[in-house]
Amino acid sequence: QVQLVESGGGLVQPGGSLTLSCAASGSFFKIHNMGWYRQGAGKQRELVAMIERDGTTNYANSVKGRFTITRDSSKNTVHLQMNSLIPGDTAVYYCYTFVQLPGTGPNYTAWGQGTQVTVSS
User: Which residues make Cβ contacts (< 8 Å) with residue 70, sequence separation at least 6?
Assistant: First the structure.
């Protein structure tokens, strides 16, 4: 019904920058919000950033001032610009979208495949 494709992960040196992208496609009425969770080895999953339908953004305290989430609403695509990366940012980043489906309009969460971000010298 809903598919998310993530791109942009990779290996980055500390202090470097990287941009993740996530494109939503399929059958849905509207998007409530989109964003990224991440999970590092041996750590709990945490919400990194999200953007609401009205454009409101939210960030984890650990990434405030370094990460920026933006949206191309016409293409149902979001981007996560990550600056001043530190080794603690190393994790698998999972894009998600919380949508209202067409017809009766139940709400549904779809997940991307995950992309590895590694911050290391």
Answer: 51, 78, 79, 81
